[in-house]
Protein 1
Amino acid sequence: MATTVRRTSCNLCEAICGVLVTVEDGRVTDIRGDESDPLSRGHICPKAVALRDLQDDPDRLTTPVRRTADGWQEIGWDAAYDLVVSNLTEVQREHGRNAVGVYLGNPNVHSLGALTHLPTMVRQLKTRNRFSATSIDQLPHMLASYLLYGHQLMIAVPDIDRTSYLLMLGANPLASNGSMMTAPGFGRRLKDLQKRGGRVVVIDPRRTETAAVADEHHFVRPGTDAAFLLALIHQVIANGQATTASYVDGLEAVEQAVEPWTPERAAGITGIDADVIRRIADEFATADRAACYGRVGVSTQQFGALCQWAIQVLNIITGNLDRPGGTMFPRPAVNALLGLGRGHVGVWRSRVRGLPEFGGELPVSTMAEEILTPGDGRIHAMVTIAGNPVLSTPNGRKLDEALDTLDFMVAVDPYINETTRHADVILPPAPPLERDHYDVIFHQLAVRNTSRWNDAVLPKPEQARHDWEIFRDLALRLLSRTPMSRRKVLASARLRMSPRRIVDLGLRIGPYRLSLRKLRNSPGGIDLGPLQPALPGALHHKTKRIDLAQRMILDDLPRLAALATGNDGELLLIGRRHLRNNNSWMHNSARLVKGKPRHQLLMNPDDLAKHDLSDGQLVNVSSAAGTVAVEVASSNDMMPGVVSLPHGFGHGRPGSRLSVANQVAGPSANDVTDAEFTDTVAGTSAVNGVPVTVTAC
Ligand SMILES: Nc1nc2c(c(=O)[nH]1)N[C@H]1C(S)=C(S)[C@@H](COP(=O)(O)OP(=O)(O)OC[C@H]3O[C@@H](n4cnc5c(=O)[nH]c(N)nc54)[C@H](O)[C@@H]3O)O[C@H]1N2
Ligand SMILES: Nc1nc2c(c(=O)[nH]1)N[C@H]1C(S)=C(S)[C@@H](COP(=O)(O)OP(=O)(O)OC[C@H]3O[C@@H](n4cnc5c(=O)[nH]c(N)nc54)[C@H](O)[C@@H]3O)O[C@H]1N2
Ligand code: SF4
Ligand SMILES: [Mo]
């Protein structure tokens, strides 16, 4: 028997852990953490072990399929590409170029081939109806970075290995393994922080796994964090503790804007005591090195943009931006900023609801209505790539119905699931262990500068295609629809370069002048050291200055001031993630999802009593958008008035071809979240803080 141990990194979440994969006679028999990885230092979570299930998965498609009256039929790659391009071309000829819509899902940012080849393909479709998971995820981070630092991807990450005070809002890295902050082994890093004498403070409407190990946790009424953050800024300024670097403008305007946001006022809205707010402000301002960080709970809510701006402002005025132990800008070996424009916002608006584009994409909350609403510019065909928006985006039922009305749909996806079951053609890419891996995006967000290249662990079967080959072949066909131009010659040259060649170039022109050859000699990765100060030189504004007084954000303050605080029996719905679930997929990996069921609606026991409900009972959760039935579970970890449901569930719809384990047999949270409920600044979906009622079934 031939046994080898190969190295790669896990691409299932943002932590990019190094793994050792044992292969016996072509089959994976073991996966464990790679101690030699300078970033993950041996850490892995249960998802890495499930990488082998993706490889051996009987549900996974290995050849293109086409939907016919007699069911799914396997077809060849060339026939599939021709079918896709001729149908998309036909729809655009008849209804105009915006008649093709595109949704790009989460796994794209974890695949090298998607990052190198997908943007060029999408560009050839020439449509403004582009959507992605960004607008139900990190858009507010990118908007704040674009406004303050001049580039949508110039993200400041908490320097958690050196900080002495970490203030975390709406993040649960003990379950999620961290996000917009690549910090594998977050639990260990947090313990080290505490051992150094540091303090961790968590603000969350649920006492999460992370809150449980923090030094301090406070419940916050969902959707109101902006008031808390403004009060912290108010307090720091009022105490004369605000300082700004020579390249920072706009403190006076901020001072005026936060003037009315006293700790007392914020307390009434957030539910956090005024004394606690004052103390946290003082501790944060006087800590040796402090970092404020907020994630999904403060991004995908009604004031996401305001929250992410305020977090930056707090870090900046306490002198913590760009200093060790504060929040810092990574300097990766391949500069991801080069691959993406600086960004823009509101250059055009969506047809039906007038929501602003961001970075060339429209908010996903408007996707279903753009398909369903008749008129010029209506979407008649969809392209979904690595996404399951029927489960992942608000009012998924409406989207489910909308996809059924399309003239044509193609999905690049390995599975026939709740979304792709609507497709006419599905193009399945080769799985992660058959791909070369370099993490272009997440080194850009990492708490330490490191670099790592790995060749594919397993060979790709002859008949299989990599995602980048699919994008290349589709794009080349799309390019050939119209006469050649200089621009198109360049695009096709770029498409013909392999990801490995592109990474090699990126490494060579990068700040450390590395190369693929150098990295291949250190397959466990190389350490490039702790994060270094970079401002003002690294700013992308021509002025090399940061202006805190961003009109677009300050103009949103009246909306916060008008926020109703009354709560007449209504409950607010929030989301959650579990270590053993991965967004809307992998629920067919029994090895991953094992354990107790975890789809239940969590509710505080006092609320259960108030609503005459009992633990374990089946209840209806209803919002303006819809109703789901689900078991309720009593939990002291929930803030009174708040209920929690995880997203990514709701499998087993007719036509979906996934085997689903019992542990995940719950409804889709996005059948109750409301596509009309957005952060109006840039249209981010507000899937947290959704008003609902809960009644006995
Ligand atoms: N209510 C609520 N909704 C949420 C969230 C929430 O917190 N609450 N979170 C939001 C967030 S942060 C995100 S990122 C989105 C995620 O939502 P999506 O963008 O839909 O992404 P996933 O759920 O990860 O879906 C993955 C899809 O990609 C396919 N896939 C897996 N691997 C590959 C691959 O390598 N290549 C290709 N081509 N396809 C692949 C899978 O089969 C599946 O169809 O959900 C969002 N939705
Ligand atoms: N195991 C696992 N890991 C994952 C994923 C997964 O599905 N499973 N998904 C990946 C993806 S795509 C992402 S984007 C990241 C997300 O990473 P995180 O943001 O760390 O993940 P969540 O668990 O969604 O944490 C959001 C927290 O916000 C809280 N919250 C909700 N509403 C509010 C509010 O109004 N205010 C405050 N302060 N808190 C609120 C919730 O209770 C929850 O604890 O995780 C990634 N990692
Ligand atoms: S933490 Fe993320 S990258 Fe690390 S093993 Fe788990 S899923 Fe993979
Ligand atoms: Mo996400």
Note: Residues 77-95 form the longest helix (19 residues).
Protein 2
Amino acid sequence: MTGLGWGGKAGAMKKLTGQDRSITTRWRPATQAIRGGTARSHYGETSEALFLTSGYAYDCAGDAAARFAGEQKGMTYSRLQNPTVEMLEERIALMEGAEAARCMASGMAAMTAALLCQLSAGDHLVAGRAAFGSCRWLTDTLLPRFGVESTIVDGRDNDAWKAAIRPNTKLFFFETPANPTLDIVDMEAVCRIARDAGIVTVVDNAFATPLLQRPLDYGADVVAYSATKMMDGQGRVLAGAVCGTEAFINNTLLAFTRNTGPTLSPFNAWVVLKGLETLDLRIRRQSENALQVARFLEGRVPRVLFPALPSHPQHELAMKQMSAGGTIISIYLDGGRPQAHGLLDALELVDISNNIGDSRSLMTHPASTTHAGLSAEVRAEMGVEEGMLRLNVGLEDPLDVIEDFDKALRAVGL
Ligand SMILES: *Cc1c(COP(=O)(O)O)cnc(C)c1O
């Protein structure tokens, strides 16, 4: 943190800021989610302060020069640093077990920065095929325009990752569980394949969050987040984060983000700080609720995918990597889009919404919403069928969610 030292006596500072990494890194993640990164001002406020400021004033011209030269700690401009944003960055880094983290304005800003900051024309990247629609647009459409070739593989197939490596392969990129098919990538195996070939692995960990799964423990190099999802957790703000080593963040990522400006607003950072305080409670309860709902749906629809169900094709691997199943369930109906849309329209409690990670239960039809921008072939290859629906299970009483599905499924003949 560069934000320490806002007044107070020397003896009081430690108590006020509490930011000794030899202590905070020893805390367990649920504690870090509440206290990690907190840097108090001289007022000693208990809840993190919100610094809505774009600039900073200096005591003298020499101080300004020293800060710009990197010789004096402190803030210069909120595109580069902000005290509230830095608190969130430190909190996420601690939870992730990463040396450092930087926050971005959205999950896609984080994914874009994590890729573009280290790829150049002539490089090659390998990506898992089941992915968030916009992530596929990055790998399939944007990067090739700048001379970066990509190979898309079935992320579940370890040999496919290995076979896709070329002399110029720079990076592996995947999410696990993947959106929306809940494919699981064997992180230990795939990260080892990458390491052996000198390739950097970037993992999109939005579904699991650091509380259910920490990719760095399995050999990943960079972890990127949409903090819009479980980290905020109440459907309020967009935010993203990139975690990695100090060297990666300082020498590779920062030049890109400071000059291109995908900066997170301090207000949104503050909202996510508040969200993280309840992340452990929410993700465990929502994962339990999701398991109950998934068990119910399994008896009523042709196919249910949920990592914590033994029927998930990669159940054992998922449960080795994750401490709970997460909040997302995908179901497949035989009646194509009409039946899928019919089910959505018959729901009373569960909202039709393409967001996830919310405390509300939300359901969407990926083929006509989140993945509509992809070609029909890419959708088919990813397993995004016309009869597929994706459900985010919230914090409501799961019995109310189950009753809602019971009625809606009857309405479409199931
Ligand atoms: C939502 C999401 C993103 C994009 O995040 P935004 O905050 O919406 O920009 C990227 N990856 C995954 C897996 C997501 O679920």
Note: The longest strand covers residues 169-175.
